[in-house]
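Replying to the earlier thread about multi-chain prediction with a worked example.

Input:
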Amino acid sequence: MTPELEARWRSQRWRLIRGRPIAAPLNHALDEVLLRRCGGGSAPPTLRFWDRLLPEVAIGRFQSVRNEVDMAAADRHGVQVVRRMTGGGAIFIEPANIITYSLTGPEALVEGLSFVESYAFCDRWVIAALRSLGLDAVYQPINDISSSGGKIGGAAQARRYGGVLHHTSMSYDLNSDRMLEVLRIGREKLSDRGIASAAKRVTPLRQQTDLPRDRIVERMVASFTAIVGGLDEEPLAEGELAEAEAMVETKYGTREWTHLLP
Amino acid sequence: MAEQNAHAGRDGRRGAGPRRGLDSLNRVHGEYKAPAGKLVVVDTEVLDGRLHRVEVTGDFFLEPPEALDQITAALEGAPADLDEDALAARIEERLPDGAALIGFDARAVARAVRRALA
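Result:
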């Protein structure tokens, strides 16, 4: 199964998008727009690196916002809270401290794989990139990238509209004091009274390597290019951006969506 | 495992947020995380012996996402004295064909309900 799928990944023309910092809700809306378009065949499979303007908490599709986020602290620190379209746990994000990427393509890219299998499959090039930089990175099912130093990042996936969206955030650096103020789960972890949804301790890449963030991203791009055979860097299509901006107004930027599960 | 502790009645999480006001006094909260699985959180009230205003949340994955409404609907109005098996069966019955629960299952939800009510 896997060799066939790998060949299928190589047979596609892949697009790389990066380099333009945008607001949090627009980043999330773009994921959905690209998923819908890739699923419907009107956009090529895409690897997109997120660039951000401001701090953010991205909560999972099924999380309770009050259980995860101290909204007063988030407001105080100018941290915008956005609900993802994918499941998984809350992440505290400061723009320079997190590396996030999204893969979107036709669902055929993960055909025949279980959800659990496809998480590791979609991130295999990242594990290779981190290993080539000297980290002993491994995939820890269901959706974690880890090393002997600790958890580095986590992925989330949606298979809808004929497409697959797989996005992953990795910690490069961490202002843990700020995170503990904003995320309730952080506080639970400290209190040691039990679990939190993201209970595993995160060890940022910066504590595991001296490399600057850009070098890591470059290596990831090279690793992805190697597995798919070629990657064309392009700007977003005009229509994609316009559609995402509209979706910010109707969904990702609205209180109804953010507080969908209060 | 330490990760499987119950948290029913833990004020720090359930009372959070002044918006909930007096309502939150009657709400109970339970959590369950299966080994190597995801966290399932249940918040509910009990009205006339039945579950009322049930919320199921967590860091699990679910396709299609709207299947969460069926899970919640399966619990709404359920007798509060149902055991884990009966609660899990109720959920399974309501799940749409082809729904994929990743990192949790109907039993994990049922267990979180029982912990909320314990």
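Chain A touches chain B at residues 60-64, 66-67, 70-71, 85-90, 115-116, 141-143, 156-160, 184, 187-188, 191, 193-199, 261-262 (CB under 8 Å).

Feel free to reuse this layout for your own posts.
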